[in-house]
Amino acid sequence: MPRIVFGVRVARSDAEALRKVITSRRFLDKTHAIIEENDFVVIPVKSEPDETLLKKHNAELVERPFPERKHREDPIDAIRKVACVPEELKHLLPSKWELFGDVAVIRLDSELDEYESQIAEAYALALNLKAVLRDVGGIRGEYREPVIRTLLGEDTVATHLENGIRYKFDAAKIMFSSGNIEERLRMADLVCDGETVVDMFAGIGYFSIPLAVYQRPSKVIACELNPVAFRYLAENIALNQVSRIVKPVLGDNRDLAGEGIADRVIMGYVKTTHEHLPAAIRLLKSGGVIHYHETCPNELLPNRPVQRILENVKGGRMDIIRMKEIKSYAPGVTHVVVDAKIFKPA
């Protein structure tokens, strides 16, 4: 007999986006099957999602019977079956990968180097991919470009759907960190009605676009230095239909004109973010909020990020609204974000 459990009923067009959010927030009930009902989908959940999430996707909470979910083969098992590598090395095949639409990025143990072409074919077959890329060196340079080798396919441009937002980018040239998903979701929930927002490191629209889609800022100035990322930023603004709100600017954010023009400044960058604090404070209105990201040695937390902001207020004061660890950046180093309200000196 099917069990009666909570479910979220949503239009088919919004179902996949909502399912990903529910999964990322650990609400998804994986023991029961998703149900399709004409133009709607009902997703089983372990507990009640908050009202804001339901309203955002025009969804409703229901109680109804759900069939038990049938066991599906784990994709890595399918990959191991078809991969043309020696049996004694198959345990080294990565069970985790970055998946962006129909493009995947994988990391391989050096013992698999001579089989990388065969491995790419196995991942492409099992996951229905048009391109498979190998992460060979992490991130480099001021533009934070991924060090990537293309193993399979010629078209490495992906369209990645997350939280109802479509991000188009070239996965061989542009970084997209799945580890930052919680911060992107948080930005989508940030109430900023009527505000002017400056996104100093906009990238392809990671924070600017969710803010414009789900909230009601009057204007978002999205600045990006990397011309390749800027091209996709402009495309993504149009793709997500927020051209009236988000204004892309190509160039160094320190060259942005104006003083006291922003109610909110987003600094979603790491390593050298503190070098841009003088420009951020200049652009911010007194009483405005700054979202400051930093990679910091653990022994210097929580003081260094706060002190760096305070040094640039110069006679004013600040109230810390929130400090959050986003993820481990490197051994002994953490990526953190500080939300602070800044009051400039009179």
What name does the CATH topology of the largest domain carry? Rossmann fold
Specify the CATH architecture of the largest domain. 3-Layer(aba) Sandwich
Total DSSP helices: 9
Which structural class do you get from the secondary structure elements? alpha/beta
Mean pLDDT: 93
CATH superfamily of the largest domain: Vaccinia Virus protein VP39
* Order of helix and strand elements from N to C terminus: EHEEHEHEEHEEEEHEHEHEEHEHEE
Tally the beta strands: 17
Give the number of domains. Answer: 3
Main beta sheet? 7 strands, mixed
Output the strand order for the largest sheet: 13-12-11-14-15-17-16
* Terminal-residue CA separation: 70 Å
**CATH uppermost class of the largest domain:** Alpha Beta
User: What is the 3D form?
Assistant: globular
Helix content: 10-25%
DSSP strand content: 25-35%
Low-confidence parts: none
Radius of gyration equals 22 Å
